[in-house]
Each structure stands twice: as structure tokens, then as C-alpha cells.
Amino acid sequence: MTTTPSAQVIPSPRDPYARRKTTRGNYELYSWVFMRASGVLLIVLIFGHLFVNLMVGEGVHRIDFAFVGGKWTSPFWQVWDLLMLWLAMFHGTNGVRTIINDYASRDLTRGILKTLLYLAFVITVALGTLVIFTFEPCPANADPALLASICFE
Predict the structure, then answer these.
(1) Of 85, 117, 124, 120, whose CA–CA distance to 101 is shortest?
(2) 109-140 burial by CB neighbour count: b if 16+ within 10 A, else e?
(3) Rounded to whole angstroms, how far apart are CA atoms 79 and 94?
(4) Residues 67, 135, 48, 117, CA torsion sign
(5) DSSP string covering 94-145, please?
(6) C-beta atoms surrounding 66 within 10 Å
(7) CA distance 23 to 28
(8) Whole-prediction pTM
(9) CATH class (in words) of the domain with range 27-152
(10) Tell me: the pLDDT tens digits for 12-64?
(11) Domain ranges of the chain
């Protein structure tokens, strides 16, 4: 079969990636495995979080400043919530990174979007970690009705 100048040639699906040499090794494979493992662990962490916060005791009606303050006095719940925050952020950032790689066709656009994504990741993880570990359940001059029972022991 001969081709004429007016005939369209369908490019190979891998052509956009031909210009980029694979120097990162198995990064995408490890990223894929991480998404599966972190997803399973996140399911356990999130359902444990929901069960304790919504099903045990009075349920959603007891969630207030005092509840969170009392919960975060325990290193167990600090680590639990920290793991949930970090894993959710790594998992989500990795997923959005993959979407950016798939749909942003220009290198400049891809770079800007990834920079904004990583900046949002760093800010959220840093602030969330600070809140979890520097949270003061018994602030001075607070309304006693809002404080956790541990503040009066």
C-alpha cells in the first residue's frame, strides 16, 4: 500500500514520551505499588478514625474542642492522626502528579502545576504536623465549659 501526501499518519502512542529518556529507573513502578499499599493502610486508618469519632460513645454529638483536646493528649492518637495526614497527602499528591503527567502536554505547564502541587503538599503537611504536636488542650483564659476534662485533673 502506498501512501499519498494527503494520507494521515497516526503517530505511535508512545511518541510524546520518546523525547524523554527513562533515567528514573523504576520510579513509576514504586509509585504504583505505594498507591496500592497506602490505599489499604488509609482505609484502616480512616475507618478506625470514623469508628472512634462517630460510633463510640455519644457519636457525632460529642465532637467538640474538648473531645479533640482530650484525644490529642494521647501520643497514640497524635501518631494515628499524623499517619493519616501524611499518608493521605502523599497518596493524593502522587495521584495528582500522575494526572498532571498524563494530561499536561507542555513541559512548562507540567512544571508549574507540579510546583504548585508540591508547594501545597509541603504547606499542608507542615501546618498539619504543627497543629497535631503543638495543640494546647487547656488554653489559658478559655471558657471552662469548652475545655476537656483533663484540664481540671
Answers:
(1) 117
(2) eeeebbeebeeebeeebeebeeebeeeebeee
(3) 22
(4) positive
(5) HHHHHHHHHH--SHHHHHHHHHHHHHHHHHHHHHHHHHHHH--SS-TT--GG
(6) 19
(7) 11
(8) 0.75
(9) mainly alpha
(10) 766 665 555 555 578 889 999 999 999 999 999 999 999 988 888 777 888 88
(11) 27-152
